[in-house]
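Q: I'm writing up a methods section and want to include an example of the input and output format. Could you take the sequence below and give the corresponding predicted structure tokens, formatted cleanly so I can copy it straight into the document?
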Amino acid sequence: MIGTTLGDIRDHIESLASEDGEYSLVCSRYGDRPVPAADHHFADRSTARAAAQATEQYRAALRRYDPQLPYHDVIVQQHTPRYDGNDPVNRRSSARGRRIEPGAEGAVAERRELVEFCHRTAAAVFETLSEAGYDAVETAVMDRYFDLAETISEPDDLCLRLLEGMAVELDTRLDPTAQRDVLSAAARRLSSPVLSTDAEPVAATLAYLRDRGVLRGSARSSGATEPDDSVRSVVMELSEYALTPHDGRLPTLPLVVELSRRRSEWLPVPVRVEAIDDGWRIRFAPACETDPIGVASAPIVANC
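A: Here is the clean output for your methods example:
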């Protein structure tokens, strides 16, 4: 493994961050916010520059796992707050005095959002596997990914296949409890989303995944998200889910990670999947309800 771990570099960047800082990092060419500093702000320009150096180091290290990780020309930008409802973190960005707009490259920007989301999620899982000592699983994921990289050139397709392969290897090589622990730890490595007090975690998760291209069609949910409520499960119905089944199981890794980010005390396992006319019906239940059935990847059954 690398001498300085991805986790160490991420912790260093987080130690430099300031909640009320006026500086952040951005790709000078496209306006993307680079992982792992995407959600952080910094108190002054010199601190932001140190974070930029650490971000470059992190991405260079991650590229050993994932050679297809997009290259960014990371620069420091200064911004001013723009308050939107109860969300003081929503900022209007202005790199070098200019506001960054998606412009005519909207479709390209959407694809970059998907690629960056996949790499960001994969990086958090890789860090967790490395720290937990699951070297065999790590190696299996990378072997699968390198095989795919030789035949798939489209970045957004390849990054989705990376998540699929990761879900399959975790499902094959780790028991459900270990999968739950890995994905829960990976979710904690990602920054917690800012939610208003009345935000519903499932709806917020679906909206976030749709914005990043993981869901491309309709999505709706029903049920409760609190383990002490009378309704003990959540059901999602999704169409045009970007991940595809493998050997009768549907990769659910990004859904589980994103739900766990929004409700860390309630990791929704087991997971059951049913094929419906235009997509999938996915049932999540609290871990205390019954033994886990699926976590990173879930069996497709006749009835959920």
